[in-house]
Design a protein that fits this description.
Blueprint: E1 9-10, H1 33-36, E2 50-55, H2 61-77, E3 80-85, H3 90-102, E4 107-110, H4 120-127, E5 132-135, E6 146-148, H5 151-164, E7 170-174, H6 180-195, E8 201-205, H7 211-224, E9 230-234, H8 237-248, E10 258-262, H9 267-270, E11 279-280, H10 284-301, E12 308-310, H11 315-318
Helix pairs in contact: 2-10, 3-4, 5-6, 7-8
Length: 323
């Protein structure tokens, strides 16, 4: 049984598990030829609309792909977009929404910040019936359509892969617990463990921990839980900190533990590793393109988008993830 740490350890429940299978890594390049040829009924609608694309930043592969999809959809439909970064700040998000209104944007594509931020500006989108679509995640209680991946399947597939590779004590590191995509991945993680009758559940919350302290917190956790032999975590900085913490304990990927990451290939960290880290990569291009298309339809004719639009993962991953 995992130790309880006061600063970030918690547990979550899950509904009935899904069927079993394994998942393997799939790279999704910056240029997506198949996605460039996506049919776009919105192209038949009048152009000259300006939409706001509000994202935390564009430093990750997923966010770059989303931006590329929005850009291509706008190019094909003679519309324009403006990119407004929030840097994961509720205050910046509120400012960006207000700026979008001042600029006369006809609609908003928004990836909410990674905490429970229900600002007046955000609530105003609902009350004023501004055409808006969330990207990748929802905020619980807000009736705003969302275009996203099946995060529960992703969490399940990542965990099941590590189990199939022999890991028995798998830690799931989560950035926050206020975003639905994170909660759904946790549910998938728990489903995979329950399906294998594995009681070693450990969900580690990293919310609120500054980057300069993250490595020390991970090191402390891993020292207190030496049985950990598998890690599920987001790519980028979180994965790099986990790898460094393990190395400080004399442990190496492949020899002492297994790791799998979400949302982007662990390219930079892989340069320092003998064994690359597998990844489950979302189809960010189609998320951005589809969300933009749905928003333009709504702006042009008032057609309401469906509450949820699930974008399949890239083909190489989708073939090996259970339905």
């Amino acid at each position: 049984e995992s130790a309880r740490l006061p600063f970030f350890l918690s547990y979550s429940s899950v509904s009935a598990p899904v069927s079993s299978n394994t998942a393997r890594s799939s790279a999704f390049s910056m240029v997506c030829p198949s996605a460039r040829q996506l049919p776009c009924p919105a192209a038949q609608q009048s152009g000259n609309n300006l939409i706001a694309l509000i994202l935390p930043d564009i430093t990750t592969e997923l966010l770059q792909q989303i931006t590329l999809g929005v850009r291509h959809c706008c190019d094909q439909t003679q519309n324009d977009y403006i990119l407004l970064p929030t840097f994961s700040s509720p205050q910046s998000e509120q400012h960006s929404i207000g700026l979008a209104k001042k600029l006369g944007c006809g609609g908003v594509l928004l990836m909410p910040v990674d905490n429970a931020s229900y600002s007046d500006a955000l609530l105003g989108l609902v009350l004023e019936k501004v055409p808006c679509i969330f990207l990748d995640r929802q905020l619980i209680g807000l009736n705003i359509p969302v275009v996203y991946s099946d995060h529960r399947r992703m969490g399940y597939a990542a965990t099941r892969r590590l189990l199939d590779e022999g890991a028995t004590h798998i830690a799931y590191f989560a950035q926050t617990d206020e975003i639905t995509s994170v909660n759904e991945r946790e549910n998938g993680y728990v489903a995979a463990l329950e399906e294998q009758h594995n009681p070693n559940r450990c969900i580690v919350k990293l919310a609120g921990i500054r980057n300069e302290l993250l490595n020390e917190k991970m090191l402390y956790f891993l020292q207190k839980n030496p049985a950990i032999d598998g890690i599920v975590i987001n790519s980028g900085i979180p994965a790099a900190h986990a790898i460094r913490a393990m190395r400080r304990l004399g442990k190496e990927i492949g020899r002492d533990y297994r790791m799998i990451v979400f949302d982007g290939n662990n390219t930079t960290a892989d340069l320092c590793l003998d064994e690359p880290v597998p990844a489950i990569v979302q189809d960010g291009y189609r998320i951005g393109y589809t969300a933009c298309e749905l928003l333009l339809r709504q702006i042009a004719g008032g057609e309401a988008p469906p509450p949820k639009t699930i974008i399949p993962l890239p083909a190489a991953d989708e073939e090996t993830i259970p339905s």
